[in-house]
């Protein structure tokens, strides 16, 4: 026969075990693993300091995202920490280190060279400091952290989406 059931799952790995017994006592079992991802959605509007995180307004940023030389620049620490990364800044070298899961990213203010897990990359615009905050090109930081980026030119909204297993 056909049957269905509603099963509660949590973010992460879930194992569903099913045992079916017919009217004469025959038994059959099956086990399946289900992965449930957590989604983080960040929306930033150019020149607007209020971010939207998972549909809810967040605390105002010290300085809003902006466009410079055709590149959309976003606050590095805000984006990285929203995804669960740790960010360190060394004022002596103007160096920035980001750690997320098994990834380490090293960059320096004003330098287009970035090192990701020991491999050198060149980004299209260097990190800059505005009002005491570090800004980087949105596409670079989002994609290197495993997110996707959409830009709506009519509303000047950047949408960053990252799915991950907790």
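Q: What amino acid sequence fits the structure above?
A:
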């Amino acid at each position: 026969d056909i049957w269905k059931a509603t099963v509660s799952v949590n973010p992460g790995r879930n194992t569903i075990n099913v045992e079916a017994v017919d009217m004469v006592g025959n038994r059959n079992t099956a086990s399946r693993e289900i992965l449930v991802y957590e989604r983080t959605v960040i929306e930033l509007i150019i020149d607007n300091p209020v971010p939207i995180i998972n549909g809810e307004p967040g605390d105002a940023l010290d300085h809003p995202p902006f466009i410079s030389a055709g590149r959309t620049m976003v606050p590095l620490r805000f984006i990285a920490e929203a995804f669960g990364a740790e960010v360190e800044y060394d004022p002596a070298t103007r160096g920035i280190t980001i750690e997320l899961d098994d990834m380490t990213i090293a960059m320096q203010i004003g330098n287009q060279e970035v090192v990701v897990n020991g491999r050198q990359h060149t980004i299209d615009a260097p990190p800059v400091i505005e009002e005491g905050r570090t800004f980087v090109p949105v596409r670079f930081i989002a994609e290197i952290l495993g997110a996707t980026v959409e830009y709506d030119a009519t509303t000047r909204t950047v949408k960053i989406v990252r799915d991950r297993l907790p």
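Q: And what stands out in the fold?
A: Helices lie at 76-82, 138-144.
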